[in-house]
Amino acid sequence: MQQVVSGLASGGIYGSLALALVLIHRATGVINFAQGEMATFSTYIAWSLTTNHGWSYWPAFVVTLVVSFLGGAALHQSIIRPVEGGSVVRVVIVTIGLLLALNGLITWIWSGEVRAVESPFPSDTMSIAGVTVSWQDIGTIIVSLSTVGLLWVLFQFTKLGLAMRAAATNPAEARLVGVRVTSMLAIGWGLAALLGAVAGLLAAPSLFLDPTMMQAVLIYSFAAAVLGGIDSPVGAVVGGLIIGVGLNLLGTYVDFVGSDLRLPAALLVILVVLLVRPQGLFGKPEVKRV
Amino acid sequence: MRSASRTIAPIAGFVALTAVVLVLPAFVTDFRAQQFAYVGIYTIALIGLNVLTGYTGQISLGHGAFMAIGGYTTALLMAGNAQFGQSGLLGIGGGMKDIWTIPIAGLVAGVAGFLFGLPALRLSGLYLALATFAIAVATPAVIKNFEEFTGGGSGINLFGLPALTASISPAHVAGFELNFNNYLYYLAWAVALGLYVVAWLLLRGRTGRAFRAVRDSETAAVSSGVSLARYKTLAFGVSAAYAGVAGSLFAIATTFVNPDTFPIALSIFLLVGVVVGGLGSLLGPIVGAVFIQFMPLWAQQVSKSPGAPAVVYGVVVILLMFVLPTGASGLLRRAGLLASRGYDRVR
Amino acid sequence: MSSLLELEGVQAHYGPVQALRDVSLTVGEGEVVAVLGANGAGKTTTLRAISSTVKRSGELRFAGKRLPAGPEAVARAGIAHVPEGRGTFTELSVLENLRLGAYARRDREVKGDIARVTGYFPWIERRAGQSAGTLSGGEQQMLALARALMARPRLLLLDEPSLGLAPLVVREIFRIVRELNEQEGLAVLVVEQDARLALGAAARAYVLEVGQVAVTGTSAELRDNESVRRSYLGY
């Protein structure tokens, strides 16, 4: 049972990053291979604020989210917008170039050494209904699901959210009612970067801070997004929770799958889902008429 | 029917290329020759990837995995492993000579590619990129895990094996004495040039037209009776075979294989290389191979601080996508130096 | 009657293909004007030129001022374009479609407007939460009209409203368009293949041929002129 709770915590992290991937894919049709590095970069910013500049945790958290939002929007406007409508290969290469550049940038600015990061949550555990859970896990679940929840409210109940949803699915018609579609897409990228920052910040205490921190998480998030349906926000979050809990249980109860094979297990999920049911659990099948 | 210029120009270019390849080692240092040997190896992989992505429009971020298959096949055939002792894989006989392992490696990888191509039929564009990305990421971990077959984390060592030509004593070819680096260079380029011809023959005929039809519009292709399944899986098989050959040569060149020899970065660089060189052209692979081999070194010239070369590399790649979306061959085509065949759109 | 919309010498391209060579027309305040012609004559392109969803050049003036570039700006200037194929947001609900129509507005009367618009299309109230993609073709057309109304436009661009719809439904739609014109003073520029239908609703019409205006006049004039009817209007 404890594994389930910590699985949910990891799942919250994977779900957040998966939601970022889905947001970007829905809005701009791009799979952002650099989402993990963007999250790592944000985490380093927060770390730098707290360690090098003596900020306390939560102010640094908020500022990092704002900076990440702006950064994500800026990235969209500068390097994604020019290649959005064009060939798929070109866009893939651009996000890959971004991945390589960000990874190098992190090492360049902050050096590649592994660092320990303090968690904002108390490190002890408590007992709920006879199950021992750590504050870290609880805190992670609360923060990640709150962020996702706030975004859901934004999308479903605000004018801006409505415009963003319209811009994502029908950009041409959205323009006809006056929606500035390009701005909506930039905001989408900004929100995705913000989600990535949340995922990174929550993961840092347990994964330790180094340039490769989010690489495995990115793969798990891909698995979550694919499992849930690459265009379904609900699917991303649910997929993340399933992957988180699933991998944890798998690692604990199946001997063959040591922690070494968790990554290939996630990849297997990706492959199997793509081959058997490409639209995932919640997505709509893509109809290609021949 | 093909106009004379369409046939003469490539042949003339090919002859020129062969001439350059033949004499280059005389003019450069030993170290450079080795680097150009790697360029030859990457060229082979890129010719194959070009067939897949440039001609049938299927994106692969996983060709490093096929190189790994080729590389490990060669290593196992030449050196065997802990479980099989020195008797090689499946008792085929230990210590197979390096050259003979190359076609076998290509075949094994080709079959693997074809088998992957079958389920991959259901995927396209980004989804295929994601699936192949997953394979490339999984490969090092899977290699590490199946220790009995692959030697696990420490891999298989080929250094100093008698089966490895010219590694202990120089090779004698046509009256010339070749040390290991030169042998490697000529071997890699002989294979590359030979496979270039094969690819050219494959692509100029019916198969090539079918490939291009698949890339430009699957719907139209099917309505004209082109079997999508056959040509898409064929493309996968062919490109994987080329990658397998490249991987085999790679293993011979580095004289060992382990899970880190074929990392995810390799798959990424391969795709970057083929796009930078230019999809759908036969000149592209060489340019792309040069880019893969030398760009990281040039990036280091800009700055040696840790991480900086990667930034340079990434930025250059992004800028190239803006400035040269159709790659180097696209640039040459626009300058009127290459015949145009409408290669600008890849799904 | 002052001209609300003025087009003079407008050209438009789809890549290398020139779809409009020289189109000049006017629409007055509260007027219903039809654009007729055969397939490929440039009718839809004319509307696209106005809403700036296609690259255009020439003089385009709305309420005396130059029409801005970019569909978002044109929409905010008070022109609502209902495109060919309705353009409903099929993944959103009926109510959300309406709210989007009012996106560019900053005033507080949006909620009241929903009631007003529902008055013209009573069924909308019942199906407010339904996904727009599940509506029939005729209902989607009406929803598109309603959505356009929500913007309180001064000019409505209507592209082939009869396309793919049963005759009964089409008649109803044109009835509503006439009602909107009479009650709200809404100016309408409607593109139609069915010339007879369009002339019944419009006061004036332009007949396009190969990207230019071939004939123009009041509906009565065009209807009564037999040679015009035969050669340009097909009946």
Written account of the structure:
Chain A is mainly alpha-helical and 290 residues long. Chain A has helices at 2-28, 35-51, 57-80, 88-110, 135-157, 159-169, 171-176, 181-207, 215-228, 233-253, 262-276; strands at 125-128, 131-134. In chain A, a hairpin with a 2-residue loop joins strand 1 (125-128) and strand 2 (131-134). The longest helix of chain A has 27 residues, at 2-28. In chain B, a hairpin with a 2-residue loop joins strand 2 and strand 3 (176-178). Chain C starts with a strand and ends with a helix. In chain C, the strands form two sheets. Chain C has a six-stranded mixed β-sheet, sandwiched between helices. A four-stranded antiparallel β-sheet of chain C has the order 2-1-4-5, with helices on one face. The longest helix of chain C has 18 residues, at 167-184. Chain C is 39% helix and 29% strand. The chains are: A mainly alpha (290), B mainly alpha (347), C alpha/beta (235). Chains in contact: A-B, A-C. Chains A and C meet through helix 6 and helix 7 of A and helix 2 and helix 3 of C.
Calculate Rg of chain C over CA atoms: 17 Å
Q: How large is the share of residues in beta strands of chain C?
A: 25-35%
| Most extensive chain interface and residues per partner | A-B, 51 and 50 residues
Computed CA radius of gyration of chain B, to the nearest angstrom = 20 Å
Structural class of chain C: alpha/beta
Q: Spatial order of the strands in the main sheet of chain B?
A: 1-4
